[in-house]
Write a structure and sequence with these properties.
By secondary structure, the chain is an alpha+beta fold. It has seven helices and four strands, in the order ααααβααβββα. The chain has two domains: 3-73, Arc Repressor Mutant, subunit A; 85-180, Glutaredoxin. It has helices at residues 3-24, 34-45, 50-60, 64-73, 93-97, 100-111, 153-180, and strands spanning 85-90, 124-129, 141-143, 146-148. It binds FE2/S2 (inorganic) cluster. The site of FE2/S2 (inorganic) cluster has 12 residues, from α5.
Length: 181
Amino acid sequence: MNMEGMEQQQEEEKAMLHDIAAMLREFEKDRGKLIPILQIIQGKHRYLAPKALKMVAQHLDISSCEVYGVATFYNQFRFTPPGKHEIKVCLGTACHVKGGGIILENFERKLEINAGETTPDREFSIERVACVGCCALAPVAIIGETVYGHMAPSKVEGLIMGFEIEREKEKREKEKIEQTQ
Ligand code: FES
């Protein structure tokens, strides 16, 4: 990750921890509240930073290990900030049968990250998900809000290239605007 990206992540994490400290005051020290607390944090901040898990553990008076164990048990939680383009690859039964695993592998290979990770420039992240309800289009990938059906390895390449071209265009536009100022 470049310097700018690291600073951005640190700033975001600082704001997240500040927010969590305030939120935890609303919750009594009840171990049964662990999952709802993690869900609220992820819903608001989109991932669970290690320091956030530690704060939750301290508040509920349980070990960080236990919090981490519970969080990793459920697929719904992620531990790194998601990318600008969140790629979700369905591995439900219909998609699995139609080669969803190969689609996932292609995204992983193309972006050089594994499922659950984010690229160092924070442009892309990959997640595996269970059935998203459009099995007739299997195998399915979702990027942002868009569903891509009948996925094929060749489509993976094209999709990523499309986003990269878009990014390049935005960069050029930005540079043009800066030059005219
Ligand atoms: S199994 Fe993938 S959409 Fe249903």
